[in-house]
Design a protein that fits this description.
The chain is mainly alpha-helical and 312 residues long. It folds into two domains: 91 residues, Orthogonal Bundle (DNA polymerase, domain 1); 153 residues, Intergrase catalytic core (hpI Integrase, Chain A). 54% of the residues lie in helices and 8% in strands. It contains 14 helices and five strands. The strands form two sheets. It has a three-stranded antiparallel sheet, with helices on one face. A two-stranded antiparallel ribbon has the order 4-5. Strand 4 and strand 5 form a beta hairpin. The chain is elongated, with a radius of gyration of 23 Å. The C terminus is likely disordered.
Length: 312
């Protein structure tokens, strides 16, 4: 790979690159389309999968096709009026409600953290080192993911060298890049120590218990308690969270890794955080992104109205 190719590849996130590659393959192989494409062929492609694929998936396919044409020096056929009209028609004929992860409620966070804490104590008493490490890792990941509002890929890319944790004080975590950091300027995230459900103490217990001094914070653990040198994959966070919740007695089928982020946003909003402070803390750049995560009670305003006497 040349230096030019290396920098061009670095400009696009790995997940985006994989998604675009799969989208182009679907257009060419599964549907039988040809590249460069015409506006008419793309419109027919959309019509062929309307109702089968979600609106967001179709939008991703259009983005991938647009990117391919631009990178190859061709005019972008996805911007043609016929493509826009077909896409608009699909949205009208196949309206769908956007699926969102269930926000993890504070009571469930407390329940799973307590269960993992007890599991660690039992594993230590019964000399089960693999289970002890797994309980400490899962507890640290869940608490840090919740209180910092991290995405799964951000949790999995944390490096010990970029983390400073002081017991009873707080923790700072530096990420060289993230989804919201389009210019790869890097950002330091901070959160204070808490009296209960403390992410700082959970992180320290995990790092010390695993004897980690450098490299990825969160790693795979095999059945014998051996830690991988590589960081966990972002896709492994969902099964980890669901399994921990299920073991703690919580039905977890509607929870995903975004449940931690949505859970914190919902808790903060209901606790009186203003949206500006919440957006700054989590890292959202626009109000629309923030409101997708905030789970507000529809009856909060009614409760306030009910507190005041009705004018006569």
């Amino acid at each position: 790979m040349s230096e030019l190719d290396r920098y061009l590849q670095a400009a696009t996130r790995d997940n985006t690159r994989r998604s675009y590659r799969a989208a182009i393959e679907h257009f060419e192989v599964q549907w039988g389309g040809f590249l460069p494409a015409t506006a008419d062929s793309i419109a027919r492609y959309l019509a062929a999968y309307a109702g089968q694929l979600s609106i967001n998936t179709l939008r991703l396919r259009l983005s991938a096709l647009a990117q391919w044409h631009a990178s190859q020096g061709f005019a972008d056929p996805t911007k043609a009026p016929v493509v826009r009209q077909v896409f608009k028609g699909i949205r009208a004929v196949h309206p769908t409600q956007e699926k969102q992860a269930e926000p993890l409620q504070l009571q469930h966070l407390e329940q799973v953290a307590s269960w993992l804490d007890n599991e660690a104590l039992a594993a230590a008493a019964e000399a089960r080192p693999a289970d002890l490490l797994r309980a400490r890792r899962d507890r640290a990941l869940i608490l840090l993911g919740f209180w910092r509002g991290f995405r799964s890929d951000e949790l999995c890319r944390l490096q010990i060298e970029h983390v400073q944790a002081v017991a009873g004080s707080g923790i700072s975590l530096y990420l060289p890049r993230s989804k919201a950091d389009r210019n790869n300027l890097g950002r330091t995230f901070r959160t204070p120590a808490l009296q209960r459900l403390c992410p700082v103490q959970a992180y320290i217990e995990w790092i010390n218990g695993a004897a980690l001094v450098r490299g990825p914070v969160f790693r795979k653990i095999d059945r014998w308690g051996n830690l991988s040198e590589q960081g966990m994959h972002a896709n492994s966070v969902i099964p980890l969270l669901r399994q921990a919740l299920e073991r703690a007695g919580i039905t977890a089928e509607h929870y995903t890794s975004h449940s931690l982020r949505r859970g914190f946003a919902t808790w903060a909003h209901r606790s009186g955080w203003d949206l500006k402070s919440l957006m700054s803390y989590v890292g959202w750049k626009d109000l629309k992104s923030a409101m997708r995560y905030v789970e507000a009670s529809p009856f909060m305003g009614m409760a306030r109205i009910d507190e005041k006497p009705i004018p006569q």
